[in-house]
Write a structure and sequence with these properties.
This protein has 2 domains: about 10-95 and about 130-215 and about 245-275 and about 285-305, 3-Layer(aba) Sandwich (Rossmann fold), CATH 3.40.50.150; about 305-370, no CATH class. It is built from 14 helices and 10 strands. The chain has helices at about 10-15, 55-65, 85-90, 105-115, 145-150, 165-170, 175-180, 200-210, 270-280, 285-295, 295-300, 305-315, 325-335, 345-370; strands at about 25-30, 45-50, 70-75, 75, 140, 155-160, 185-190, 215-220, 220-225, 245-255. The strands form 2 sheets. Strands 1, 2, 3, 6, 7, 8, 9 and 10 form an 8-stranded mixed β-sheet that branches. A two-stranded parallel sheet has the order 4-5. The longest helix has 27 residues, at about 345-370. It is globular, with a radius of gyration of 22 Å. The two termini are about 20 Å apart.
């Protein structure tokens, strides 16, 4: 999923002070891997990956060294008697799909017709999920029912990316979003579609999640050129392009507890800390800081709130070394607000860009080490 940051000091701190398996991540459509950034949570993380690709699940399970990360080979589905399934019966997943007109699709089709090998784009492709079929018969499950049967009563982050039935799966969680006290949802969204209320389109996903108490906090867009005038691919294989219409993207929704959502009344310190972690890993340290301040009375008996505020400040400032201070940062905003204004000084802009790239690369190296160490 796009949007997660490699530099997240708060998660490193949480991993040091944490209780085991207090954060549950559910990744539906985990082909490729579960996003490494979550591994910064250390032993606090418990993750379940679900995917119908048998060979991929076997590969991931064989590579996985963390006993708290497990994989399930299954199709996620919605029950046939569910109201959404009944309403959608006979309708396609979406309407007005320009997919066959896109240069990525046409490029793939041309390679297939000539017997060429299709390289998989790291940024996703028009038909990336359907390109690999399961190795054998795979069971279908209604995921909320599976979680209930497994004795799971709390879920922190739900990620859905199955390239087709995403909205069906999301609808299967209609009651479970509240019952499991889900804090955040990450889902691939389509920016095309008709006005049909069962289309797997961004406007329907947005309406559904807002009706269940979530707000949109992060959104990425991927452009795809049409075949009439192809643009250069941004990845190694056919997929998103440098120029083109916005076709798909990744959206992150979360509970907006800072707005005084009554949902917060049912949450303990661990759940609030988990939402702070979600905000931080999606590079929203400001939203995490808002929670730290608002819920200090609940958090402070167990956690050092001032320390966490300093770490969130380090993320905002991009501090490579220690020394970030939340109090000093806020004082600078109120007393020397000019330092928060944008600059056009090329030297300063270059230095900031280089520091950002350094943090990204250093963070990636740390995450690879965590993955290999089984953490």
């Amino acid at each position: 999923m796009e949007g997660l940051t490699n530099f997240c000091p708060l998660l490193d701190h949480v991993a040091e002070i944490t209780t085991e398996k207090k954060f549950l991540l559910l990744d539906i459509g985990c082909s490729g891997r579960i996003d490494r950034q979550w591994r910064r949570l250390g032993r606090r993380l418990r993750a379940i990956g679900i995917d119908p690709n048998s060979a991929e699940i076997q590969r991931l399970a064989a590579r996985e060294k963390n006993p708290n990360v497990t994989y399930l080979n299954a199709f996620a589905a919605i029950g046939p008697e569910h109201p959404f399934a009944r309403k959608k019966q006979g309708r396609p997943d979406w309407g007005r799909d320009p997919g066959s007109r896109l240069s990525a699709f046409q490029y793939k089709e041309r390679l297939r017709s000539t017997g060429g090998r299709v390289a998989q784009s790291v940024d996703g492709a028009v038909d990336s999920c359907s390109a690999v079929a399961p190795a054998g018969p795979v069971a279908s499950i209604v995921v909320p029912e599976y979680l209930a049967q497994s004795g799971i009563t709390s879920l922190d982050f739900l990620k859905v990316d199955v390239d087709g039935k995403d909205f069906d799966i999301l609808n299967s969680f209609d009651q479970a979003l509240a019952d499991l006290a889900v804090l955040g949802v990450g889902i691939e969204v389509n920016f095309f579609g008709s006005d049909c209320d069962t289309d797997n389109s961004f406007h329907n996903v947005d309406r559904f999640l807002k009706a269940h108490g979530f707000e949109l906090f992060h959104l990425t867009t991927r452009r795809y050129s049409v075949g009439a005038l192809p643009s250069r691919f941004v990845g190694a294989g056919p997929g998103p392009t440098e120029v083109g219409r916005i076709y798909q993207g990744d959206a992150m929704y979360a509970r907006d507890l800072g707005a005084g959502d009554g949902f917060a009344n049912s949450l303990n310190a661990d759940k609030i800390l988990n939402l702070m972690a979600i905000f931080a890993v999606f590079d929203l340290p400001d939203c995490a800081a808002e929670l730290a301040l608002k819920f200090r009375p609940i958090l402070s008996p167990r956690f050092d709130v001032d320390r966490m505020l300093d770490l969130l400040t380090a993320q905002v400032e991009g501090r490579i070394f220690a020394g970030a201070s939340y109090k000093r940062h806020v004082a600078g905003f109120t007393q020397r607000s000019g330092i928060f204004r944008a600059t056009r000084n090329p030297a300063v802009m270059l230095a900031r860009m280089l520091k950002k790239e350094f943090l990204k690369l250093r963070g990636r190296s740390q995450l690879v080490k965590l993955e290999r160490a089984g953490k």
